[in-house]
Amino acid sequence: MRNIVKSLLLVIIFFNCTSCLVGRFVWYNFSNITDYKIFPSRPLPASPTPFHFIEAQHLSQKTFQHMKLQTLDSLLENTPTVAFLIIRNDSILFEKYYRAYEKNSTVASFSMAKSYTSALIGIAISEGHIHSVNDKIIAYIPEFKDKKDFDKVTIRHLLQMTSGIKANESYYSPFGMAAKIYYGRNLRKYISRLKMDYEPGTQFAYRSINTQLLGLILERATHKNVTEYMNEKLWQPIGMEYDATWSIDKKKNGLEKTFCCINAKARDFAKFGRLYLHKGNWNGKQLIPAKWVEESTQIDTTQGSVPYYQYQWWFTNTKKGNFEANGFHGQYIYVNPSKNLIIVRLGKQPGKNVRWEQVFEQLALKL
Question: Full-prediction pTM beyond 0.70?
Fold first, then answer.
């Protein structure tokens, strides 16, 4: 009876507050890897000439052991994993899907999209749409000119999460900034209300609003929506096998949620890892400047930056130069240049007491 009452209450809240962020937050009951179904989006079509990894799959599941002598497959079975790929030298050594997911199943990227946004910034700089990472953001978002200290914020600050822009990263409250820009239907309006929290370039604070501002800058600098630019510069050139989408806030004049929400398949996520593994070069064509990839994967602790984060990428092992795109609920594209290795893990949740970065590093040691 209590569950029936709760369900009726949720229905009443939703239908009386369909344009209300709190109503949507309650109705959808927290984020999920299937959220691409609830948001409007723009298409990223499959390439007519897709790239295919070599399907070797000669890796024994018993080769690897993790906590309590679990085999790799057992570990994946006992966590909310939906896809796991290990690719070395362009050969798929391990590929398995769980919980009714398959090769052609779509999964929302969450914050892995931040690394794609960074790549697009690098491309836009190389094409002259943006002068440099030292550009002040007010050159692209002039509505910030009259706001205190916004004239000090650079594109580099946004990339490094050192902008000082005030935001609550919580997804657990409809009043947190992350939830507002995730469920919100007017990102441009939210952006116009931003305020500063502390002096730019003085400290690191992981805040998704930084990447959302990078998306707005991309749109204004290139005079294209971000999905169109992505499709032209990355999606088609690296031969994606499947159709994908990028979620936007609303259908009319929508803005891509560049801090999250690229909705794609595991193999195509792996191709983005391959692009960075080869320093932006795709089979002889330089899609992202090699210098940009190098800057994105090298430690820099100046201007408030931290040694484990650079240009929207995370470092899993600062001594060995391994890095990853990392998304909420345990989405990963792990890249290990010394082993020519890519690992993709997608899941509904990370899983209890599992540190996936450690799993990736342990797997790499065995190869």
Answer: yes
